[in-house]
Design goal:
By secondary structure, this protein is of the alpha+beta class. 48% of the residues lie in helices and 19% in strands. The chain has 11 helices and 9 strands. Helix 9 packs antiparallel against helix 10 and helix 10 crosses helix 11.
């Protein structure tokens, strides 16, 4: 008889351990395996305790396999593989148990056990034995944790831009392309008459790769294809570039003034466009200064307006 019962979601704290023990014991009895109750209860207590202490939510427990070989699984949101007990060095494992990381209880209560690492977490599982013993079953690790995000180079930093409204970002890209084309032409033909165009063109050259490709453009494209309305971005950028964006914000405001005076053919930004761009670009400046990310609060909101004034 196969087992495929819905998983039990666990809360934090000692209550989660108690709920898991009770649920596993009831399941063993329901399938007529009272002989496994003691080991099942001991093993799941250890796994859930470790998950609550050292892993991340969500944490669930379930019983799968067959009546003959039921398998208890505890899943959590961390891809970190726990320290594995070593039956050749039991004293070392006893020390680990002091800190709640040892799995020797599980290894002694199981005929087989292991860790299955997945993209978004891991499952620690065991097949309970009829009796616990002194000898530990050797655990196996399957799967590989996802490759860690590449650390930025010495002169780079990671910028997290949270809750980016995709429609506003696409409008920003379009406005940037039009403005870049306009200032380059003006700088070439009328540098003396339009010094702002020369300043903007030089700045575009400094930021060309990041701004031409669109900051976080690939991540935005993936989000658009999925139908999402917002996206969180992580962008690696040289610190000098992040700092230079502050000057870019100022020049965009000057460009708006030139547009309103019809000295540039590009349209001046609307209030909402200006608010979004100042927040988006301002995140690079703020985080370069060591401040924490601030998510987009929405166009026209008081919180957003205060946020924009803080980077002015």
């Amino acid at each position: 008889m196969p087992l495929n019962r819905p998983a039990l979601s666990l809360g934090s704290g000692p209550r989660g351990v108690q709920d898991a023990r009770r649920w596993v014991v009831d399941t063993c009895r329901d399938i007529g395996r009272d002989d496994l109750v003691e080991c099942a209860e001991l093993g799941v207590s250890e796994l859930v305790t470790n998950a609550l202490l050292h892993a991340t939510a969500p944490i669930t427990v379930r019983v799968r396999g067959t009546r003959e070989h039921p398998r208890i699984e505890v899943r959590d949101g961390s891809t970190e593989v726990p320290l594995m007990p070593d039956d050749e060095h039991p004293d070392e494992d006893d020390l680990l148990l002091t800190f709640g990381r040892g799995l020797s209880i599980v290894a002694r209560c199981a005929t087989a056990w292991g860790v299955a690492v997945e993209d978004d977490g891991k499952v620690v599982w065991f097949v309970p034995a009829a009796h616990s013993g002194d000898r530990m079953a050797r655990g196996v690790v399957t799967g590989e944790p996802p490759a860690p995000a590449a650390e930025p180079a010495a002169d780079e930093m990671n910028i997290d831009v949270l809750g980016v409204p995709l429609r506003s970002f696409v409008e920003f890209q379009r406005h940037y392309r039009e403005l870049r084309r306009e200032v380059r032409l003006l700088a070439l033909a009328h540098e003396v008459d339009y010094p702002l165009a020369k300043d903007l063109a030089d700045l575009f050259g400094t930021l060309d790769r990041d701004l031409r490709e669109g900051i976080g453009a690939e991540q935005i494209e993936q989000a658009l294809q999925s139908g999402a309305a917002t996206a969180d971005l992580r962008v690696a950028m040289p610190r000098a570039t992040a700092a230079t964006i502050g000057r870019f914000i100022e020049l965009l405001d000057l460009a708006d003034a030139f547009c309103r005076e019809e000295r540039l053919l590009s349209l001046a930004r609307t209030a909402d466009q200006r608010q979004f761009q100042r927040w988006f670009l301002g995140e690079f400046v703020r985080q370069q200064d060591g401040q924490q990310p601030t998510a987009w609060a929405g166009a026209g909101t008081g919180a957003a307006a205060r946020q924009q004034s803080s980077v002015s």
